[in-house]
Structures are given as C-alpha cells and as structure tokens.
Amino acid sequence: MTAATTRDAVFPAGRQALYDINGYSAAIRSGDLLFVSGQVGSREDGSPEPDFAAQVQLAFDNLTAVLAAAGAGLDDIVDVTTFHTDPEKQFDTVMAAKARAFPSAPYPNWTAVGVNWLAGFDFEIKVIARIPQTA
Q: Which is one GO molecular function term here (predicted)?
C-alpha cells in the first residue's frame, strides 16, 4: 500500500484489545472523513449490557469515545446507520437516545435496519463523520 492508501486506524482509549480480538478497527480516518465501525452497548470486558435502554446509551457512549479519539464529536456526524433486533418494540427507546445525542437540527441523515442477529446485542450504530479542521 502506498501512503495515500494506508488505513489510518483510530481507537478509543483502553478498548483497542477488544477490536484486536475481533480483527477490525474502531474507525478509519480517510482525509477529513471518519468511518466508524458499528458500536454496540458493550461493557468494558466486551460483554453485552443486558438492559436494553442502558445498552443503547452505552452504544452512543462508545461511539462518542471513538469520535473523540479522532478529534470529532456527535455534531460532526453526517451519516448514521443503526441496526435493531426488534425495531417495533425498541423504537421509543432508540428515539429517546437519538434525541439526546442530536437535540437540534440540522440532524444527520439516518438509516435504520432491522436484523435478526447482532452477536448477543440488540442495537448497533455506525456512522460517518467529518473530522474538524484544526487551526
């Protein structure tokens, strides 16, 4: 790979080992864009948080940590994809977390997908963000 095509991996503090175990990066920086892998509501040891509302909030917290590691935040997100194991039952809980994360317009675009398996989790969020230019 040339320098122009080398992947610039980003990891939040203290969680790189969890990504190494599964063979992927938390995020990849490409120019001024950050492509964040799906974040789930995992505890420090990587296990799923059993309470659904807490799992969703923890997924957003984990997402925030990945963004911060790249010098970005929730306001820098331009594209969101979420995955739900039971969208109809989970809708209100997810919308409440979404409202906390994105309290005012303009909102990022959002695609929600119903799935039947998330490796023991019930919610996952992946995003593309713009990395702010530093002065």
A: deaminase activity
pLDDT digits (tens, 9 = 90+) for 101-120: 999 999 999 999 999 999 99
Question: How far is Cα 32 from Cα 51, in angstroms, rounded to an integer?
Answer: 36
Q: Which domain holds residue 58?
A: 8-130
The H-assigned helical ranges of 1-135 are 16-22, 52-69, 87-101
At 21-45, the pLDDT tens digits run 778 889 999 999 999 999 999 988 8
Q: Give domain status of residue 125, yes or no.
A: yes
pLDDT reading at 2 higher than 50? no
What is the total count of domains within the chain? 1
Instruction: Find the CATH number of the domain harbouring 47.
Output: 3.30.1330.40
Residues 130, 55: Cα–Cα separation, whole Å:
26
d(CA 74, CA 84): 20
Could you tell me the pTM of the whole model? 0.91
Task: Count CB neighbours of 10 within 10 A.
Answer: 23
Residue 2: inside a domain, yes or no?
A: no
